[in-house]
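Course assignment 3, question 2. Fill in each field.
Student: A.L.
Task: Predict the tertiary structure for the chain below.
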Amino acid sequence: MVEYMDDEEEFKEALCKRFNDLKEYKDLTEYRIAKVGGSAQSTIKSVMEGQSVPSVITIRRACKSFGVSLPDFFVFDSVPGEDKHHTPKQIAMIEMMEKLTEGKQDRLLELAEGMLQGQIADEQNAKKARRNKN
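Answer field:
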């Protein structure tokens, strides 16, 4: 869950930690982050040491090095490739859905909605049957 950080110092610390966590996770050097992203190494070092708050442009450039999207960068409690919010089956469904045309996505959604309505009806009927049995 992404939380709003009201305190500027807390946000700066979170950015510093995020840079360092991704650097460690990806086994990158400050030089490599700067070179791949197109930032000055001194800028990256300053951010990673908590001495400065990076601009959005610097973060976007670092994201290129880290291999994460800009929105994913701001999910502070996650690492690339780790999804705490979806099961493996849900991730597989999302990945398949992304490969389908828009029309086929619509048809798949209609199918899923029909299946869900059927499941809800089945559950309601089972509940009624249990009540009638007692």
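Instructor remarks: The chain has a mean pLDDT of 85. The domain at 8-73 is CATH 1.10.260.40 (434 Repressor (Amino-terminal Domain)).
Grade: pending
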